[in-house]
Design a protein that fits this description.
By secondary structure, the protein is an alpha/beta fold. It has helices spanning 2-9, 15-29, 37-63, 72-82, 100-106, 108-130, 135-146, 156-171, 176-179, 183-205, 209-228, 237-247, 260-266, 280-286, 296-301, 303-308; strands at 254-257, 271-274, 291-295, 311-319, 322-329. The protein has 16 helices and five strands. The protein is globular and about 75 Å long. The termini are far apart.
Length: 333
């Protein structure tokens, strides 16, 4: 049931079903525990199916395809665009979403390079989401965790979840937002590393360890305070506003953009085309869309070319120094 509820909150929550089933099978075949594993796995799957089936059937009716998320293909397209790969062989109805299985079958080596590159990026985003000042304690906690038979320890399940999701993100799309849910699972190792440091100070310097521990805590607080006081997401809120505006445009228009977040929020009954921003000159000539969404800097660099190609300004969205320009074809009313 928990895996189904997690899936209904975020699509990647479905991975808990795979992790839970795998751990149950591990107990039976690796740890050699004589439990009713088949029954437990069946109950786990049944609980997920009962609560998730209505939504999955709705997605089938809404998109015409079996999927766990409406935007999985679009998110995968964002990953390709970020690495400079543009694939226009999509067959996802009225959208430019990339069917992952089709892409892997057609371009296996390209996909392999993407996975390898995103594997390192996934780990980097995980460290960034956790915050770099936590890393010394995390590494110390990992050292203690991996010392001995770690696969028999109670927090082994946390390791499985973290590794599973970091690998899954590398297969599809990597972003810091996806790595944030892994942070609470890692705080136990951070705390274990901090306690180990306190014990080391106490054994080495006795009463003076209190002063050293206080210095570490003060430095840790100073290092994390700027991030703690920073507003969450407000600097990018204009991208959501732009995406919502484009989503509401009538007539099922084709929307061409170089911004993945705008593409994510704009997707609806329209057609989304996500392009590589590094080839802006070619994009302006070949873009066959009704609307074009460019960041402020790109728009300033190509303003004259934009006008020559028949694009006119439709609306501006901004947040301080950053902004997004929405353009439309001059022929549109």
């Amino acid at each position: 049931i928990v895996s189904a509820l997690a899936y209904l909150v975020r699509p990647e929550g479905a991975g808990l079903l795979i992790v839970g089933g795998s751990l149950l099978l591990y107990r039976r075949w690796i740890a050699k525990r004589s439990e009713r594993i088949a029954l437990k796995v069946s109950v786990l799957i049944l609980g997920f199916v009962i609560f998730s089936t209505p939504y999955i059937l709705y997605l089938r009716w809404d998109t015409g395809d079996w999927a766990i998320s409406r935007k999985t293909g679009l998110v995968f397209s964002m990953a390709l665009a970020r690495q400079g790969w543009d694939w226009d062989e999509s067959t996802a109805g009225d959208s430019s979403q990339v069917r992952i299985a089709d892409f892997v079958a057609a371009h296996p080596l390209t996909y392999l390079r993407k996975v390898v590159a995103d594997a390192f990026r996934s780990l980097g985003f995980y460290f960034e989401a956790l915050h770099y000042s936590y890393l010394p304690f995390l590494f110390a906690g990992w050292f203690l965790f991996f010392h001995g038979s770690f696969w028999k320890k109670g927090d082994f399940i946390f390791l499985v979840v973290v590794v599973f999701y970091l690998g899954t993100f590398a297969l599809i799309y990597v972003t810091r937002r996806y790595g944030v849910p892994l942070v609470p699972l890692s705080l136990g190792w951070v705390a274990s590393g901090f306690v180990a440091m306190c014990d080391y100070f106490d054994n080495r310097w006795g009463k003076r360890s209190v002063v050293l521990t206080g210095i570490v805590l003060f430095s840790f607080t100073v290092g994390t305070l700027p991030k703690t006081l920073q507003a969450i997401g407000k600097d990018k809120f204009y991208l959501r506003e732009a995406g919502t505006y484009l989503k509401e445009r009538p007539g099922r228009p084709t929307i061409v953009t170089t911004n993945g977040r705008v593409a994510f929020y704009a997707e609806g009954e329209n057609r989304i085309v996500l392009k590589d921003p590094r080839d802006l000159s070619t994009l302006l000539v070949s873009a066959d869309g009704s609307y074009l969404a460019l960041d402020r800097e790109s728009y300033k660099q190509a303003e004259s070319s934009v006008r020559e190609q028949g694009w006119v300004s439709d609306r501006e969205f901004s947040s301080g120094r950053e902004g997004l320009s929405v353009l439309r074809r001059a022929a549109l009313p």
